[in-house]
C-alpha cells in the first residue's frame, strides 16, 4: 500500500489499566476514504482502540499516525476536530436538536447555523425535528442527531462506536443508509465498530477482527473467513 493512501495507521499499540492488558500490540491501517468494519466480542478492546485514536486516552507504547503524523505531535483539540468519535451512548444536551448540534461549534468558537442545518439534513434528521426537545427523541433519532453533531465539525474521519446500538431493529438499516450516504457525500474515512457480523459485511469496505486486544484477521469483506474471530 502506498503510504500516502494511509489515513490512519497504528503500529504496536498497547494499552493497560493496572495489570490488565486491553490492547496488546495493535497493527492496523485504514485507507483514506474507506470504511473499515471493526468487529470482535465484548471486552476485546474495540472501544478503547477508538478512544486512543483521537487521544481521549493515551497509549502506553506504540504509535498512531493520522496523515503520516504521530498524533502525539498534533494538538489534541485539533485532532478531535479532524478525527471525531461518536460514542455508543447518544447523550443529548438540554435544549433543542439545533442547539445540540450547535454546542460543539460554540465550544470551538465557530459560528454557522447553515452548517448545523446541512449536518442535520446530511444525517437524515427530518426538518420537523429541528426545534424539538432533543431529550424526547427516539433512540434512532438521537443517533442521527449525534451523527450530525459529529459531522458539523467537518472532520476528515469518523470513529463510530456501535452507531446503531439501542435502535429499533426495524430501523437499523435505515440508520446505516443515512450514515453511508453521508460518508460518501463528505468523502470521510470511517472506523465502524460493531459486534454484528452481518452489519460489518453491509457497511465495510474491509473488515478487521479484534480478539483479546489483538487484531487477528484483516481482509476484504468478500469471502472473509469468520472462523477464529469469536
Can you describe what's shown?
- This protein is of the alpha/beta class and 230 residues long.
- It has a domain at 3-89 and 156-220: P-loop containing nucleotide triphosphate hydrolases (Rossmann fold, 3-Layer(aba) Sandwich), CATH 3.40.50.300.
- The chain has helices at 46-53, 76-82, 97-107, 113-122, 139-151, 172-186, 197-203; strands at residues 6-17, 20-31, 35-39, 61-66, 69-70, 83-86, 157-161, 189-194, 206-211, 214-220.
- Helix 3 runs parallel beside helix 5 (139-151), helix 4 crosses helix 5 (139-151) and helix 5 (139-151) runs parallel beside helix 6 (172-186).
- The longest helix has 15 residues, at 172-186.
- The radius of gyration is 17 Å and the shape is globular.
Amino acid at each position: 500500500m502506498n503510504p500516502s493512501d494511509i489515513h490512519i495507521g497504528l503500529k504496536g499499540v498497547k494499552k493497560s489499566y493496572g495489570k490488565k492488558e486491553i490492547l496488546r500490540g495493535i497493527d492496523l491501517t485504514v485507507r483514506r476514504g474507506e470504511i473499515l468494519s471493526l468487529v470482535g466480542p465484548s471486552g476485546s478492546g474495540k472501544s478503547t482502540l477508538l478512544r486512543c485514536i483521537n487521544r481521549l486516552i493515551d497509549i502506553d507504547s506504540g504509535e498512531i499516525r493520522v496523515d503520516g503524523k504521530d498524533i502525539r505531535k498534533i494538538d489534541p483539540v485539533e485532532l478531535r476536530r479532524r478525527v471525531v468519535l461518536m460514542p455508543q451512548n447518544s447523550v443529548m444536551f438540554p435544549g433543542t436538536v439545533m442547539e445540540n448540534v450547535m454546542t460543539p461549534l460554540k465550544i470551538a468558537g465557530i459560528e454557522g447555523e447553515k452548517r448545523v442545518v446541512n449536518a442535520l439534513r446530511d444525517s437524515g434528521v427530518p426538518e420537523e425535528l429541528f426545534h424539538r426537545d432533543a431529550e424526547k427523541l427516539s433512540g434512532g433519532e438521537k443517533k442521527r442527531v449525534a451523527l450530525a453533531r459529529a459531522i458539523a465539525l467537518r472532520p476528515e474521519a469518523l470513529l463510530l462506536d456501535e452507531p446503531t446500538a439501542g435502535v429499533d431493529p426495524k430501523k437499523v438499516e435505515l440508520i446505516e443508509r443515512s450514515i453511508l450516504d453521508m460518508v460518501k457525500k463528505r468523502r470521510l474515512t470511517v472506523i465502524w465498530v460493531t459486534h454484528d457480523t452481518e452489519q460489518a459485511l453491509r457497511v465495510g469496505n474491509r473488515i478487521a477482527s479484534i480478539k483479546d486486544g489483538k487484531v487477528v484477521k484483516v481482509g476484504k469483506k468478500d469471502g472473509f473467513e469468520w472462523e477464529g474471530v469469536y
